[in-house]
Amino acid sequence: MAGPLAGLKIIDLTTVLMGPFATQILADLGADVIKVEPPEGDTVRHLGPMRNPGMSAGFLHVNRNKRSVVLDLKAPGDRESLLRLLQDADAFITNVRPAAMARLQLDAATIAAANPAIIQLSLVGYGQDGPYAAKAAYDDMIQAACAIPSLIAEVGDGVPRYVPLAIVDRVVGQAAATALLAALVHRLKTGEGQSVEIPMFETMVPYVMSEHMSGLTYVPPNGEPGYRRLLSPSRQAYATQDGHVCTMLYTTRHWNDFFALAGQPNRCEGDARMRTIADRTRHIDALYAEVGEVLKTRTTEYWLDVLGSADIPVMRLHTLGSIMDDPHLRAVGFFREVDHPSEGRMVEMAPMGRWSRTQPASPRPAPRLGEHGEEVFASLGQAGSADSRSTP
């Protein structure tokens, strides 16, 4: 494996999306991630379009660069196999509820006894010291708990809808990868392993409230919650003569130049609402609505050209289909066709960033269930154990 994390061994006992997304980040960066799956496999293997059973599109996009072994952790022999895997691992990440891990006799103390230097990262729905500790947590539930649907209702038609992305799983997965790396840095300095708990709810609340706490920041409060610019109903993709365009007027220059391009060079003079960013934010609904009326007068291509030439932020509104043909993504090779050994030709997305010395790569496709059991356990002197089961 290439990448800056080459040499790290991570045991991955996670399923669905949040945990596998976190471990794919680490695997893309070069870590040896061993995905431990139950005999039926990760649930996501069986959801969505697929060419072969157990190899869904969703699974392929969050499990590349990993090795898969199968263990039934309710079976004593397989539990012992997991403990042997953990003995020389750098980290262990799981999204199994702590109570369930305790019933399997795989609590933090047991794992630390097997490997005192290991980093144990537990992904949970809610901090385990609070009253929500035992609640089931899914992306939609955490979005609701963080008031995200309420914000959408406020700027839309009053219906509290969820963001149509598994946004919580992705954000918390990224946070988990960051936390794991921080714990590994601490171990490099001290030699100390530790347990880290990353709760979905508490991780997501700052993503909402850092902008929207607003006047509630102060004691006593000096205003209402909510950042008005973000909550403007007119903050949207703007209609043009033939489609939509996305632009954002932020600085005083942006506003002056926009109205000059619209044939109103003196529009901002003498308007108290336009003097400063604070003034504009207080009146942003009306100002954005005025921008929308101007943009309706020309075509999308016209605005992309003239606003871009004036260095005013502007972007085409993509669909899920059109983004696949974006010229920038094509130029940087973001979507690439690869050959999967069992699934054939497929589209893969590039790993994170550009590195001058340790560029991450994708040498290992998403694994078939149990595909690497023999090689993983042969290295521990356990060839032929139950984990060697694999799908055809």
Provide the descriptors you would attach to this structure in a database record.
392 residues, alpha/beta, Rossmann fold, formyl-coa transferase, domain 3, six-stranded parallel β-sheet, 15 helices, globular
Q: Beta fraction of the residues?
A: 5-15%
List low-pLDDT spans. Answer: 383-388
Strand tally: 11
Taken from the alpha-carbon principal axes, the silhouette is globular
CATH class of the largest domain: Alpha Beta
Summed up, the domain count is 2
Going across the biggest sheet, name each strand in turn.
3-2-1-4-5-6
**Overall average residue pLDDT:** 93
Order of helices and strands: EHEHEHEHHEHHHEHEEHHHHEHEEH
What's the alpha carbon Rg, rounded to whole Å? 25 Å
Question: Which oligomeric state applies?
Answer: single chain
Please give the alpha-carbon distance between the first and last residues.
25 Å
CATH homologous superfamily heading of the largest domain: Crotonobetainyl-coa:carnitine coa-transferase, domain 1
Helix content: 25-40%
CATH topology of the largest domain: Rossmann fold
- Tally the helices: what do you get? 15
Structural class: alpha/beta
What is the second-level CATH architecture of the largest domain?
3-Layer(aba) Sandwich
Largest sheet composition: 6 strands, parallel
